[in-house]
Amino acid sequence: MQILLNCLSLTSFYLCFALGLALVFGVMRIINFAHGEFFMIGAYATYLCISTLSPQLGGPVAWAIGAIVAAAVTGLLGLVLHRIMVVPLGDKPLAIFISTLALSYVIQTIVFQIFGPVGLSIAPPMRGVVNFGGAILPASRLVVIGVAAVLAAGLWVFLMRSEAGRRIRAVAQNPRGALLQGIRTEKVGRLTLILGSSIAGICGAAMGPISQISPFMGAGALWKAFIIIIVGGIGNIWGAVAAAAIFGVLDTLMSQFGAGRFLALTSAAVMLFVLSVKPSGLFGEKE
Known about the structure:
3% strand; 11 helices; single chain; 287 residues; two-stranded antiparallel sheet
């Protein structure tokens, strides 16, 4: 039971982080290398909100406000990114990739200068542990599981049930066909980038209380997220969900049995194996 809870907790984090990245790439066919820094910005926004509001409103309310602020700030960053980089560079994905890489270093440097290199701790919105049939789970990790479930379900409902979601799916499947049908692909791209960036910010708010936050916390998470969306099928959101579950279980079992030092090596090996057998990923489609 304990291993199952650990698998669920780690899968939730992988899913939470990879969702936004998979959404942006699936629709816009661009890699936002600053996604990890948006995740970091979300964590710092939550830290500031909790530090300021917690004495008056209490930890849970302050954290909830922090998560909303994190989503708003990173969503705004996504809007700015779309306006100043994606639109001007148009259909040059390599140039956009390099631009977002440069943006990630700029954001890291700014946060480094403001907060310094020392890691900071965020007070968890829920304290203590929860007992499930003899297995225990820190309440803060239960928050991450809940946030990941709400994000995945909310994204599914949005994409499948709303008019904006249908347009996003149309652009993801056939951008040229969607354009011929009168769908404004630039507007869809802007909405997608705002949505994906906001998901990164909420993920930062959820994960911040679990580990120390620092200007460099996004890099490691981004590396794992890339592997997840490649294995799942680049741009396939539901493939990312499946791949997050696969690596959540695999990484938990390896850590449980003392092979944690081989996690990065194993993840890379799994990715290379999947690419050699099915280059489009487990759930990807040939283009």
